[in-house]
Design goal:
It is built from 4 helices and no strands. It is mainly α. The N and C termini lie far apart (148 Å).
Length: 209
């Protein structure tokens, strides 16, 4: 129903738009011209009525001037109505164009959204299939490469021996560090004792008189 209304509206609006374009009429300029001519007609009527008052048949003169005034104003009014009709049809055409552009944009947006959703679903399926294949490959590889019990025990024994050796090396290193620290402390103490000044001699007792 909406599309039918838009189509009917298009037929109505496009005729007016095409007529205005074919005539090449500048509507704002025409409105300014009509306003200027109205002012000129009003001024001419005032001038003619002033001239009529100087004549003998004032009433007939004024009536003729006002008749010309009405005819001129009526012509301007017809031109103004034509411009209003053209302007109305132009706005209708613009409104139709906006509706069509929005409808086209909406269809394109929906198409892009559906495409993105389909692409996302495809990627998710591919990701699930890839993960499934990778898990299966790891499981098969794990079963195929699983060593026998004797080999596992040997590896565990070697790992325990390496750990014990590493602990022994760590303790030996810590012992050497402690011994070195104690040696430095003793050397520093000997050096400090060597540099300590000797005690001053006791004063001699005064000679008896």
């Amino acid at each position: 129903m909406k599309k039918i209304a838009i189509a009917c509206f298009a037929c109505f609006a496009c005729f007016g738009a095409l007529a205005a374009a074919a005539q090449g009429i500048d509507v704002p300029a025409e409105r300014n011209r009509i306003a200027s001519e109205r002012e000129a007609i009003e001024a001419r009527l005032a001038a003619e009525e002033k001239e009529c008052r100087a004549k003998f048949a004032v009433t007939d003169c004024v009536a003729a001037a006002r008749a010309r005034h009405r005819e001129a104003m009526a012509e301007l009014r017809r031109q103004e109505i034509t411009l209003n009709d053209m302007e109305r049809k132009r706005k209708a055409a613009e409104k139709l164009r906006d509706l069509q552009e929005r409808e086209t944009s909406s269809r394109e947006h929906d198409a892009l959204r559906k495409r993105d959703e389909s692409l996302q679903q495809f990627r998710e399926r591919e990701s699930r299939q890839t993960d499934k294949a990778a898990r299966k490959q790891r499981e098969e590889s794990g079963h195929a490469a699983k060593p026998p019990a004797s080999e596992r025990k040997a590896k565990a024994k070697d790992a325990a021996a390496q750990a014990a050796k590493a602990e022994e090396n760590r303790r030996a290193f810590e012992k050497r560090q402690r011994e070195a620290a104690e040696h430095r402390a003793r050397a520093q103490k000997r050096e400090a004792d060597r540099k300590k000044p000797l005690a001053a001699p006791l004063p001699k007792a005064a000679a008896s008189s």
